[in-house]
Design a protein that fits this description.
It comes from Nasonia vitripennis. This is LisH domain-containing protein. Residues 187-249, 275-302, 350-377, 402-429 form a coiled coil. The chain has 439 residues and is mostly helical. It has ten helices and two strands, in the order αααααββααααα. The termini are far apart. Residues 94-103, 306-310 and 383-403 have low confidence and may be disordered.
């Protein structure tokens, strides 16, 4: 099967011209290798030769002499001049020495034969040498052919002995070939698996690279978000500090305003006390005026209008009393005007303080709402903490502050009402006094 395969492959290569191309290529390489090389044997006739070379020349010459190649022998003798003279040292197969006769074969002497065998490494006394000598003496073959024939028989024997081992070697070669094929198949399979594993490894590497790229992108995005969040937190902290500072300043302003309101309230209470004292003095004055008027009426009733002189005196007295009364009336009117002006100023001051208090309460409410919003934002960013306690605290503080301001306003309103009632009473008394005097 293999021979058929090899023959078909060889014929196919020969048809395709591959064999001729290979031969041409090999010849060209051989020519290139042997180019400029001197391969001719250079013989130096003066140089000494080895014993084996003389034996080789002798065997070749004896072969040529036995085959009657005289011209070739002469050429060889010219190249190897130390050859023996075959006319003297070569005997015929019949046993007598002679020259080159055509009817009989020439034989070398026995001592030359033994010397030749010894030089070639064959013992002439042993069986190998004796068999060669007998073969040479009993046959017409030259000594060279006898030696070669003996070597051929030895080779045949060796081949016969080695034929038994050749089967084992061929079997061994077949087994080795099969195992080699198995190894080749396993090697191919391993190479395929290696290629498959390499492809899978490349695919995994590509997937891992893609995943690393995606993770790097996500990491950069997260870092950007983290930086933005840190910036926002920083700005939030700054705004929170600013808000706390503004709240503290506004709280200080509010406390200052409260102290100012307390001082003004104290001043208002002092002014109210002063007005109350003046009202009491004015009432006393009115009482005195009434007493004087009553006394005047009693005097007018008691004095009869008889004497003109008395009338003149009475008129003069009435004029004096009238002038005094007018002076007192002017003084009282000035006092009432002054009281009305002070009342007006106090009402304006109270209105202004009320407006300021309302403005401060509005600001406090706005700031508390802003503070609540900022607290809610901060708590939502940092941690979700319930804000009900903060709201309750803020509302309680606002209610307490607003309640204190409302109490102040209620007190001021009550005092203003008292002042208005007293001024109305003073006006009524003044009008009554004018009406009584006009009568």
């Amino acid at each position: 099967m293999e021979n058929d395969y090899y023959s078909t492959v060889y014929s196919w290569f020969d048809k395709c011209g591959i064999i001729s191309n290979i031969q041409t290529h090999l010849r060209q390489n051989l020519v290139n290798a042997l180019k400029n090389r001197d391969l001719a044997q250079k013989f130096d006739k003066t140089a000494p030769k080895s014993a084996k070379q003389y034996v080789y020349d002798l065997l070749i010459a004896e072969y040529l002499w036995n085959r009657n190649y005289a011209y070739t022998l002469s050429v060889l003798a010219s190249e190897a001049p130390l050859l023996i003279n075959f006319n003297k040292h070569v005997k015929q197969s019949g046993g007598s020495e002679s020259t080159s006769s055509s009817g009989s074969k020439q034989k070398l002497q026995s001592d030359y034969v033994c010397h030749t065998l010894e030089t070639l490494g064959i013992e002439p006394t042993k069986a190998k040498g004796q068999s060669i000598i007998k073969e040479y003496e009993n046959s017409d073959l030259p000594l060279l052919l006898c030696i070669l024939q003996w070597t051929k028989t030895v080779e045949d024997r060796l081949c016969a002995t080695t034929n038994s081992t050749d089967g084992y070697e061929s079997h061994k070669e077949n087994v080795l070939r099969k195992t080699f094929k198995k190894f080749e198949a396993a090697k191919k399979k391993l190479i395929q698996q290696k290629d498959l594993f390499n492809a899978q490894l490349r695919q995994k590497e590509n997937e891992l690279k893609e995943q690393t790229l995606i993770m790097e992108k996500q990491l950069t995005i997260l870092q950007d978000k983290l930086e933005k969040a840190q910036k926002l937190m920083h700005t939030y902290d700054i705004k929170q500090k600013q808000l706390d500072e503004t709240k503290r300043q506004q709280y200080l302003q509010f406390v200052q305003k409260e102290t100012e309101l307390a001082i003004k309230e104290k001043l208002l209470s002092q002014e109210a006390n002063r007005l109350e004292k003046e009202r009491d003095s004015y009432r006393n004055f009115e009482g005195d005026m009434k007493k004087l008027q009553n006394e005047l009426l009693k005097v007018q009733k008691e004095i009869p209008p008889v004497v003109d002189r008395g009338d003149c005196n009475l008129t003069t007295k009435d004029a004096v009393i009238q002038t005094e009364f007018e002076k007192s009336f002017v003084y009282a009117r000035n006092e009432t005007n002054l009281l009305n002006q002070e009342k007006h100023d106090l009402s304006g001051l109270v209105q202004e303080q009320r407006w300021r208090i309302e403005q401060l309460t509005a600001k406090v409410l706005q700031l508390s709402r802003k503070l609540e919003e900022t607290h809610l934002k901060r708590l939502s960013v940092d941690a979700q903490v319930p804000v009900s306690s903060i709201r309750v605290l803020n509302t309680n503080t606002i209610i307490s502050e607003s309640s204190s301001t409302e109490d102040i306003l209620q007190d001021a309103k009550m005092r203003l009402r008292r002042l208005e009632e007293e001024s109305m009473k003073a006006d009524q008394y003044y009008f009554n006094f004018i009406g009584n005097t006009s009568r």
